[in-house]
Amino acid sequence: MPDKFHRVVFEPDGRTLDVPDGQTLLEAARQAGIHVETPCGGKGTCGGCRVIIPQHTPEPSDTCREVLSGEEIRRNLRLACQVRVRRDLRVVIPEETRVGDQKILTEGVGRDVPLAPNVRKTVVRLPPPSVEDQRADADRLLDALAEKGMADLAVDVRTARDLPERLRAFDFHPAVTVIGNDVVHVDRATTGDACYGVAFDIGTTTLVAYLVDLKTGRVASVASRGNPQAAYGDDVVARIEYCGRDGGGARTLQRLVVGAMNEMVAEVCRREPIRRSVIYEATAVGNTTMNHLLLGLPVHAIARAPFVAATASAHSVGAREVGLKIHERGRLYTAPLVAGFVGADTVGVILATGMHDDPRLRLAIDIGTNGEIVLGTRERLLACSTAAGPAFEGARIRYGMRAASGAIDHVEIEGGRVVLHTIDDAPAIGLCGTGLIDAVAAVLAAGVVDPSGMMRPADQVRATSPALARRIVGADGEVGFLLAGKDETAGAHPILLTQRDVREVQLAKGAIAAGIETLLEEFGATLDQVEEVLLAGAFGNYIRPDRARAIGLIPCVPLEKVRFVGNAAGAGAKMLLVNRNLRHVAGEVARGVEHVELSQRAGFQARFADAMFFPTGVM
Amino acid sequence: MPDKFHRVVFEPDGRTLDVPDGQTLLEAARQAGIHVETPCGGKGTCGGCRVIIPQHTPEPSDTCREVLSGEEIRRNLRLACQVRVRRDLRVVIPEETRVGDQKILTEGVGRDVPLAPNVRKTVVRLPPPSVEDQRADADRLLDALAEKGMADLAVDVRTARDLPERLRAFDFHPAVTVIGNDVVHVDRATTGDACYGVAFDIGTTTLVAYLVDLKTGRVASVASRGNPQAAYGDDVVARIEYCGRDGGGARTLQRLVVGAMNEMVAEVCRREPIRRSVIYEATAVGNTTMNHLLLGLPVHAIARAPFVAATASAHSVGAREVGLKIHERGRLYTAPLVAGFVGADTVGVILATGMHDDPRLRLAIDIGTNGEIVLGTRERLLACSTAAGPAFEGARIRYGMRAASGAIDHVEIEGGRVVLHTIDDAPAIGLCGTGLIDAVAAVLAAGVVDPSGMMRPADQVRATSPALARRIVGADGEVGFLLAGKDETAGAHPILLTQRDVREVQLAKGAIAAGIETLLEEFGATLDQVEEVLLAGAFGNYIRPDRARAIGLIPCVPLEKVRFVGNAAGAGAKMLLVNRNLRHVAGEVARGVEHVELSQRAGFQARFADAMFFPTGVM
Question: What is this structure's pTM?
Answer without folding.
Answer: 0.81
